[in-house]
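User: Can you help me understand a structure? I only have the sequence.
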Amino acid sequence: MRREYVMGFTAAAVVAVAILGVVAVPGTTAEASLTQSDGQLTLRETPITPGAVSGDTATLTVTNWLEHTGGPVENVTILVRAVDQETGLIDTRTRASVGTVDSPGDHPVETTLTVNRSGDYRIETLVFENGTRVASGRSHVSGLDGLTPDYAESGLRFHQFGGSLPTIAYSVESVDDRTVRVNATAFLTNAGDDPAGDLQLLVRARQTHSNIVADRATIPVEDVRPGRTANPRVTLRMPDNYTYRLDAVLTRDDVIVDTESAVADLNPTREVSEDTDTESVDVDADAFANDSAADPSADDETVEETADGAGPGFGVVAAILAVLGAALAVARRTDD
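Assistant: Let's start by predicting it. Here is the structure, written out as tokens:
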């Protein structure tokens, strides 16, 4: 047989086998073209916003902005993880299934992560198409311990005048047998958008050098409208001729919302010699004794008023001084 005939029969056989293959397995050529997507995904940005905040943790919402161009992209998934900046360990992770992306433009995909408020984190986003990573990005978060927990959220705060005016002012109502009745007034401003209420204000008088609490009082704070300032006032009893810190604590449902402190100097004329750096201050503990604690039958103190009677402990001091004076007199007579 001539050579050209052999080559012609061979070519015809190859074509026939190819045609039979297509007929026997229809769609094989079409499937091969569909697996080669001409679409493209790009991770443009990953802004982070705070969500729920508790005492120990904070929930972060990570919005992953995907830009799509070209044809459809199938089986898209996103992995977001928080990596501790100090240790490099993955603190937590989450995965979101996007599915098929076929429309051009930007597509936001929100994910949430709950992390400890005491750490700083690197937030990493990985984008996958059919299990293959096609895009990635990262951002950083820190200072989560500065977020206010949800249970302490309130627009009511101690007003900050920004000058020499104190947030807690006081005035002397009366002085009786070395005991002073002081009216303490706090300035609370509602900087929020809603009325503030269901709060309590605790004010205590703490002697500066010994930290002994001479007296305390609590008053409810209700219905402070947005942008308005309330002036709750309490009355405290304390021994005279001492310097005090007026500590104010604003609470809601036994949770501290805000704190403030101011000085109440009832002994402003004390002098210190030029050659003395420090001065020992004698504190009479009996002067801070609580009469109502010693007498179980005494009525509980109210917010605005305290128990009546003489200054606590000063009668005992006078008796001790009298005994010491008599002892000295006897000693002198014996020497004579």
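Now, to help you interpret it: The first helix runs from residue 3 to 24. Confidence is low (pLDDT under 50) at residues 14-36, 292-319. Let me know which part you'd like to focus on.
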